[in-house]
Amino acid sequence: MPNNYLDFEASIAEIDREIADLENNEEINAEEIKALKAKSQKALKALYGKIGAWEKTRVARHANRPHFSDYIKGLITDFTPLAGDRKFGDDLALMGGLGKIRGRGVVVIGHEKGKDTDSRVKHNFGMAQPEGYRKAVRLMELAEKFSLPLISFVDTAGAYPGRGAEERGQAEAIARSIDKGLSLGVPFITVITGEGGSGGAVAIATADQVMMLEHSIYSVISPEGCASILWRDGQRAEDAANAMKITAQDLKKLGVIDKIIKEPVGGAHRAADKAVKMTGAAIMTALEDLSELAPKELVKRRKAKFLDIGRNLL
What we know:
Blueprint: H1 10-23, H2 30-48, H3 53-60, H4 68-75, E1 76-81, E2 94-101, E3 104-111, H5 117-122, H6 130-145, E4 150-156, H7 163-167, H8 170-183, E5 188-197, H9 198-202, E6 209-213, E7 217-219, H10 223-230, H11 237-244, H12 248-254, E8 259-261, H13 272-290, H14 295-313
Parallel strand pairs: 3-4, 4-5, 5-6, 5-7, 6-8
Antiparallel strand pairs: 1-2, 2-3
Helix pairs in contact: 1-2, 4-13, 6-8, 10-11
């Protein structure tokens, strides 16, 4: 099966292989190719209309999904990256800077996983260390100082759990980032684009509007980690995923998130540019809704929103 296909997409892969074979044939049958492409799209739509939590987890982790760099390239103009936490160093797993979205000044932060082996190592697979979250706080303060909306893109398996990160105050850095997000006097919008893992995700997601792409996930722990704790068997990750309510659809029902952003048929990894545009449209709608609110009202509503999540889930 081609690398671009997940194991549950075997039937789609077979149809697409037939299409490729016909297109490489000297005697191209345009009608047959057209019919097979229609069949592929129909099968893809039907398949993705019924995939479960574990399949969505696989899709959320797909290497070809749009990354932070893709959202910056597709949505943000005049982007100026800012580096460092002014205390220890720079963290390339959590990036950010200043720019404009459709002519409007914004501060943008987000996790970057990288796209190949070298860039994944460079960005630590999107797992930020304390200096990453302290950089996020610095950028949040910058947004507030200049009255600029803040947009965050979440895509991480979680904060980096290494010894050095713990020695430099990982938990404290995450807590301060959460607290700063809750108290911001400017519009704050979060989009969970792939994985939203644990405190590493919520550290930059205490927003006025939290949106998720249709096939992304958001949870306190990974399915593998949950399975290891509950059953002492990481191989039961699928059982854990189904029990944890980690999908956008489940979390919308529970009131944990505010909006689900539709993905192109077959997932954002199949049409990254289209997914980025759809995300941009959702962000602009949210910005328009929040722009009329005064700073004190934003803070009041945001804090009440997160308190209500806790009350409703007890």
